[in-house]
Design a protein that fits this description.
The structure holds 2 protein chains of 2 kinds.
Chain A lengths: L1 H14 L1 H44 L6 H7 L1 E4 L19 E4 L26 H17 L4 H5 L2 H7 L4 H34 L7 H28 L3 H30 L5 H12 L11 H14 L11 H38 L5 H11 L4 H29 L10 H6 L10 H7 L1 H21 L7
Antiparallel strand pairs in A: 1-2
Helix pairs in contact in A: 1-7, 2-4, 2-7, 3-14, 4-7, 4-8, 4-9, 7-8, 8-9, 8-13, 8-17, 9-12, 10-12, 12-14, 13-17
Chain B lengths: L1 H16 L1 H54 L15 H7 L2 E4 L19 E4 L17 H6 L4 H17 L4 H5 L3 H5 L5 H30 L8 H28 L3 H30 L5 H17 L1 H11 L16 H39 L5 H13 L3 H27 L6 H5 L15 H26 L4
The chains are: A mainly alpha, B mainly alpha.
């Protein structure tokens, strides 16, 4: 019976010209968004490789200079792009593309792409995630809003019930019809995206399981919408009412709650202003080591520690250049301060995330989007991970340069190093966070999506049993 | 006339008894309140940030001037030029400047690009970033991704939906419930009757929004009377946008579709105007106005710095030819063991690299500007884009405002650097008066020309087209069975 109902429902919908048009339009949009995203990804991958090697070339081709001056000039590390970012660009446009690694200071990512666009850019781009998050749920609403109401309006539901069909069977049949239409679009997008991403030939690749995980998240998202559509259509007194309620729900789920939760998170756990953030760091650094101050108490303590280690009485007796040791130690100390303050910022974000999680109980779009961005490595978690790794590298990079001073500048008036030293500094080798770790960090989001899917399915199956059929 | 009055009276009674209508209006007003509160809070933080920065500059300058007075009065002595108050080194390193974008009285209506850009920029002479068209802030990128709840969002995105949901079935509902035959038997034309009903809904919603907006502006202490022109422009903008969606709804009603079909068509139109066309325009802008990656610009700057270092003497000579008034015979200025000499050398290197890099950087910014100008032209394809652009302009938070601010800040930074470097490179002793009269930044509004007239004309064209279509369909609707 369920199969028959589904077959009938599919036939009914394909006979309708506007449904065919809508399906064709959405399919074309999906294909266009995929082609554009693939092009973007290809371009970004090429630019990444090209600019990464140019940054390294710039570093290695510096002229002869004091290694600490070279540390001040610094170098750049560039955020790589994961193939799944083709589907969901996440915060990529808003989070900067590069981190400058210099002496004494940890910097945030800079070059926020969004700033290079007009304000109208905020309306969004034609990307697969835009289609998946907003357009396909809307299409499902258009396809299914009258699944039950039309039967009621034409009184055909009575005939079906007289013939022995159960309301739950009808509901499941109509559910299946919507699911089959959705799965067609879903397959088209994810299979095409996965295959084309391998054809790009980028050095970074995502395995099939990650494509499946990303696809699976959106599958759950659509199932939630299908459940709600069938349930509301069964409950509504007319097609117009059903469509009105579903559209209102769509607005709340996709537009209002994500925005409202952002505001709520921001007001509940605000980030400090940049000035306050820097003031706090400066305050912590005031009495500590900074590599250039030989006279404060911390520097005196360190000096004594070095003298004790080497068993000598004065700096002049040291076999190494004390200035280099102080710079290296100062760098470590300053980095610890930065790490402390950036960790505080991260913990503030984690608190904000708890608000998003609670709001996820009101809108499945939130947990779905958080999971999607995390799997695509375009979320805040990726940004933190990349910046933390870059900071570890910055300390190693500075330590290598400062220790070179310690080892070679003893007794030299103006010590300078050359290209050999610059080339000997290892390149930054970013290791992606393992998928298991990412999924573990998003267990609650996944649980939220699952809860939505199960509860809404139960609504569909159990609460359509006792609907008014007239 | 009498029939009209009866229809109006009955429609008003019906409307205010309609729970769905009242519910939607309530949602709209609640969202407007929340949005205004949110924007107010948002800008209070931004205002406080700017105030803090301006105070810091003022305090630093006062302290420096007082120290110079003490120095000249023989009350204090200093060991190095890092601490010597009259030295250009001290001024360069310890007394930064701040440029700031003033807040519009109507900033309350749209956060716009305010969550991407800071309303102030620190000009620190030894930071390369001071001469770039960028500003730093500490904002969660998630906030930027999902955007802020402001009145512009409520009006541009949600208001049309509420209009459509309250007017999509004015005619179809009567037909579906069998009442249309009764109405048709009355001495009133169907299109006239639909027009009356739609007009009442339009005016009710418009009056409610405008009155509530006026109330909100009063509560949040916006100087409406002092900015009457902007307020009138805002009202006209709201009127035209609301009218556009009601006209559209009227048109679809006249087409005689069923309720479901009408709502699908109207919602699809909403999706097209509010989501699809803007995203297609943005995508086309990217495709047709390709711009190299900013990463290339950064690398170019680094490469120029390396090039400059490898031929520093020649480059320094060129610098002095470019700025003959910076040349000095004072031996201190060329002695690298002295902090003045060392800093002149360091800052000159940064400056030379910037000069060598500037044409590439400017070219990049020009390309960004022309791409954005392209998008601004094609905003005409969607009323939602026109209104968003108009509202953010009125609020002074559009990308045009922020980018102009950054450009003006960059120009100020160049001018200020020239002023200070002239003193620093010649080992000039700055006086307390000179510190008190350092160049001050003022934002030039003239450089962001208004677009209200254009927006008005484009919206008027949209309304005229819809009006013509309505006229054509009204003839057809007389044949509605």
């Amino acid at each position: 019976m369920i199969g028959h109902v589904a077959q009938h429902e599919l036939r009914r919908q394909f006979r309708d010209g506007r449904i065919r048009t809508l399906l064709i339009v959405v399919t074309l949009m999906l294909i266009a968004s995929l082609v554009l995203s693939l092009r973007d990804y290809q371009l970004a991958s090429n630019q990444y490789q090209k600019n990464l090697s140019q940054a390294r070339k710039n570093w290695e081709s510096q002229s002869t200079k004091d290694p600490h001056d070279a540390a001040h000039d610094g170098t750049y590390v560039i955020k790589p792009l994961y193939p799944l970012a083709m589907i969901d660009k996440g915060i990529k446009q808003f989070s900067g593309q590069v981190v400058h690694l210099g002496a004494h200071e940890r910097k945030q990512s800079t070059l926020n792409e969004a700033k290079d666009h007009s304000g109208l850019f905020r309306f969004g781009e034609l990307t697969p995630s835009f289609i998946l998050t907003y357009v396909i749920p809307l299409l499902l609403i258009f396809l299914g809003y009258n699944a039950f109401t039309e039967e009621k309006e034409k009184q055909t539901i009575r005939l079906l019930l007289v013939q022995g069909a159960l309301l739950s069977q009808l509901a499941l049949g109509k559910w299946l019809a919507l699911f089959l239409q959705m799965i067609g679009l879903w397959c088209l997008l994810f299979v095409a995206a996965a295959i084309s991403s391998y054809s790009v030939g980028s050095e970074i690749s995502a395995d099939v399981s990650q494509w499946m995980a990303l696809g699976g998240i959106y599958l759950f998202y659509f199932i939630i919408f299908i459940n709600l559509i069938i349930w509301i259509s069964a409950k509504a007194s007319s097609s117009g009412m059903s469509l009105t309620v579903l559209l209102t729900l769509w607005i709340i789920i996709t537009l209002i709650i994500p925005k409202a939760s952002t505001n709520l998170a921001g007001w509940s756990y605000p980030f400090p202003t940049l000035q306050t953030f820097r003031d706090n760091i400066n305050e912590d650094q005031t009495n500590g080591l900074n590599g250039h101050n030989f006279w404060n108490e911390a520097a005196q303590d360190f000096q004594q520690k070095v003298l004790d280690e080497y068993g000598v009485e004065s700096i002049e007796d040291l076999p190494v250049a004390y200035g280099g040791l102080l710079l290296a130690e100062g760098e470590k100390y300053e980095s610890e301060i930065y790490t402390k303050h950036f960790d505080l910022l991260q913990s503030q974000y984690e608190k904000q995330r708890s608000i998003y999680r609670w709001c996820g109980l009101l809108s499945p779009m939130l947990p779905v989007r958080f999971l999607s961005m995390a799997i695509a490595r375009t979320d805040y978690g990726f940004l933190w991970h990349f910046e933390d790794e870059a900071e570890k590298y910055r300390v190693e990079f500075n330590t290598a340069l400062n220790m070179n001073i310690a080892e070679n500048a003893k007794g030299v008036n103006r010590y300078e190093a050359g290209r050999e030293l610059w080339a000997s500094i290892p390149e930054f080798d970013y290791k992606w966070q393992p998928p298991q770790e990412i999924l573990r960090d998003h267990t609650l989001e996944f649980a939220s999506v699952l809860l939505w899917a199960i509860l809404s399915f139960l609504l569909t199956v159990f609460f359509t049993r006792n609907i008014q059929i007239v | 006339m009498k029939e009209n009055r009866t229809v109006i009276r009955l429609e008003l009674i019906q409307l205010f008894r309609n729970k769905a209508f009242l519910g939607l209006i309530l949602i709209l007003l609640v969202l407007m309140t929340l949005a205004t509160w949110n924007t107010d809070q948002y800008f209070q933080v931004k205002r406080a940030e700017v105030k803090t920065q301006l105070q810091l500059v003022e305090e630093n300058d006062k302290r420096l001037a007082a120290e110079i007075d003490s120095l000249n009065g023989g009350l204090a002595s200093y060991e190095t030029s890092y601490t010597l108050p009259s030295s250009g080194v001290r001024l360069t390193y310890n007394n930064h400047r701040v440029t700031w974008l003033p807040f519009s009285s109507f900033s309350l209506i749209a956060i716009g690009q305010g969550d991407l850009y800071s309303n102030y920029k620190k000009i620190v002479l030894y930071f390369n970033s001071s001469y770039e068209r960028d500003s730093e802030e500490l904002v969660s990128p998630l906030e930027q991704l999902f955007g802020q709840l402001d009145l512009a969002f409520v009006w541009v995105y949600l208001l049309p939906l509420i209009i459509l949901l309250t007017s999509f079935n004015v005619l179809s509902l009567e037909r579906e419930t069998g009442r249309l035959t009764l109405i048709a038997s009355q001495p009133i034309r169907i299109w006239h009757w639909v027009l009356l009903k739609i007009s009442i809904r339009f005016l009710t919603i418009l009056v409610l929004i405008i009155s509530f907006l006026f109330l909100l502006l009063l509560v949040f202490e916006v100087d409406v009377l002092g900015n009457l022109l902007v307020f009138v422009q805002l009202l006209v903008t709201l009127f035209m946008y609301t009218a556009f969606w009601f006209f559209l709804s009227f048109l679809i009603n006249l087409a005689g579709f069923s309720s479901g079909k009408s709502l699908i068509i109207l919602t699809s139109t909403w999706v097209i105007f509010v989501f699809l066309l803007p995203s297609v325009v943005n995508q086309l802008a990217k495709e047709l106005n390709t711009i190299p990656s900013r990463l290339e610009i950064i690398n170019h700057h680094q490469a120029m710095y390396n090039e400059m270092e490898s031929s520093q003497d020649v480059e320094m000579e060129r610098l002095y030819q470019r700025h003959p008034d910076w040349r000095s015979d004072d031996p201190v200025t060329s002695d690298l063991s002295n902090s003045t000499g060392w800093n002149i050398d360091y800052l000159a290197k940064q400056y030379i690299a910037q000069i060598k890099h500037r044409s590439v950087a400017d070219n990049y910014e020009n390309q960004v500007e022309s791409r954005n100008a392209w998008v601004e032209v094609f905003r005409v394809t969607s009323p939602a884009m026109i209104i968003q652009s108009a509202l953010t302009d009125m609020a002074g938070t559009s990308g045009r405002y922020y980018r102009s601010f950054l450009k003006q800040s960059q120009e100020y930074a160049h001018g200020y650097r020239h002023y200070v470097f002239k003193g620093l490179f010649t080992n000039h002793s700055f006086t307390a008066n000179e510190i008190r009269q350092l160049p001050v930044f003022t934002f030039d509004y003239q450089r962001v020309p208004g677009t209200f007239k254009q927006d008005f004309l484009i919206m008027l064209a949209y309304l005229m087209v819809l009006l013509i279509l309505c006229f054509v369909l009204s003839k057809k609707s007389q044949k509605i069975n």
